[in-house]
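Researcher: Let's do a round of design. I'm pasting the structure tokens now; please hold your answer until I've finished.
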């Protein structure tokens, strides 16, 4: 199918871009914003509106396929791209993407996405956010050409079996750590509640007492208002705040993790980024040390790496080194969505759990495309995104998954 014309426009994301370093350093919240000066290059304020650009392929048969480019909530953190503007992204798209794809005949996803994702334009790869959105449009183009779902394109090209088992959805609370937990329980999300524990003084506590109290409340709340059959997996993202609270004394972090595990019992618990040692080598060494000490204590608590495992190559490094029990395949950071597929499959092949994540600062379109990838590759869980409101992101992801499973099931049964 030939691409007749490439269009683009600026769009809104489901959340905002935040200067994580300023927040971790103690920036005070003021309503929905943060007071103080940003600490990270590229930020004009500590919290600023998210940016997305929609790239639309007008196909020769008149149909339109599109994907959305956006930047993570914590832009410029842990090796990620700096914050960008819609105009800056659109200028790059107009200069490089438009002439590359206009007139191009797209017949398959994998080869087309890989070629574009790796291509150097004036000696450089395009920003990951652009490669992310453009390859979404490539996948939808192939699906429209073949009159099938995007999931079926991935299964066919990567030779994956049909599996109608639903992928559990992860929800994140944002700063509404009580109301949003109730929403998650009522909707029976499979993995929760995230917590957004990105500040020691206000959210973790200097000795971890604030977080520990909330963790106990979450467990009790599940048992108080949840149905007897509801047994979610607990996932908490602490953005290195445990290490910060205990001055990166890893033995004290281990002691604290054991307290968290006890507080979560009987639920399975994952802790994402308990430490942030500011370099990949130190982070890898530190996470492996935590895992070893937890094993010695007989702990079943599992550790997740996020930052420092941003690209496919970095994920492979972490998986090969067994640096974490789970890798967050942070969809928005990997560039071409072909890398998301490869990363999840690599994790599974080598015995490391994959969480197909992303960011609250994505769009409805990128979320829908990611669901198609997850239904094909079957990670341990996938993000309910975008946004921090729970209802909207979980609805978008759940409904797309249910539609896909129904279509694939009907196709398998010969009903369609």
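Researcher: That's everything. Go ahead.
Model: Designed sequence:
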């Amino acid at each position: 199918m030939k691409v007749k014309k490439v269009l683009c426009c600026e769009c809104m994301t489901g959340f905002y871009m935040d200067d994580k370093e300023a927040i971790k350093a103690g920036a005070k919240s003021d309503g929905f914003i943060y007071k103080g000066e940003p600490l990270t290059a590229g930020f004009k304020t500590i919290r600023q509106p998210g940016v997305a650009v929609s790239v639309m392929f007008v196909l020769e048969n008149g149909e339109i396929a599109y994907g959305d480019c956006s930047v993570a909530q914590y832009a410029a953190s842990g090796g990620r791209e700096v914050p960008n503007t819609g105009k800056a992204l659109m200028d790059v798209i107009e200069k490089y993407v438009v002439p590359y794809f206009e007139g191009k005949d797209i017949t398959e996803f994998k080869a087309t996405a890989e070629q574009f994702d790796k291509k150097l334009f004036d000696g450089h790869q395009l920003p990951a956010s652009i490669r992310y959105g453009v390859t979404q449009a490539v996948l939808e183009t192939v699906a429209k050409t073949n009159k099938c779902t995007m999931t079926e394109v991935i299964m066919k090209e990567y030779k994956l079996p049909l599996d109608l088992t639903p992928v559990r959805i992860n929800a994140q609370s944002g700063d509404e750590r009580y109301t949003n937990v109730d929403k998650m329980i009522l909707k029976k999300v499979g993995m929760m509640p995230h917590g957004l524990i990105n500040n020691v003084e206000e959210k973790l506590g200097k000795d971890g007492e604030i977080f520990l109290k909330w963790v106990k409340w979450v467990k009790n709340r599940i048992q108080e208002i949840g149905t007897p059959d509801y047994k979610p997996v607990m996932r908490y993202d602490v953005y290195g705040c445990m290490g910060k609270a205990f001055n990166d004394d890893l033995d004290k972090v281990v002691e604290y993790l054991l307290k968290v595990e006890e507080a979560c019992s009987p639920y399975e618990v994952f802790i994402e980024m308990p430490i942030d040692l500011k370099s990949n080598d130190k982070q890898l060494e530190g996470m492996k040390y935590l895992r070893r000490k937890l094993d010695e204590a007989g702990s079943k608590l599992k550790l997740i790496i996020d930052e420092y495992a941003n690209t496919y190559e970095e994920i492979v490094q972490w998986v090969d080194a067994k640096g974490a029990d789970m890798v967050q395949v942070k969809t928005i950071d990997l560039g071409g969505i072909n890398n998301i597929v490869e990363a999840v499959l690599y994790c599974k092949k080598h015995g490391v759990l994959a969480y197909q994540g992303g960011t609250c600062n994505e769009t409805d379109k990128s979320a829908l495309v990611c669901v198609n990838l997850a239904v094909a590759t079957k990670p341990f869980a996938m993000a309910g995104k975008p946004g921090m409101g729970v209802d909207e992101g979980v609805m978008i992801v759940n409904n797309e998954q249910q539609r896909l499973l129904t279509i694939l099931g009907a196709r398998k049964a010969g009903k369609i």
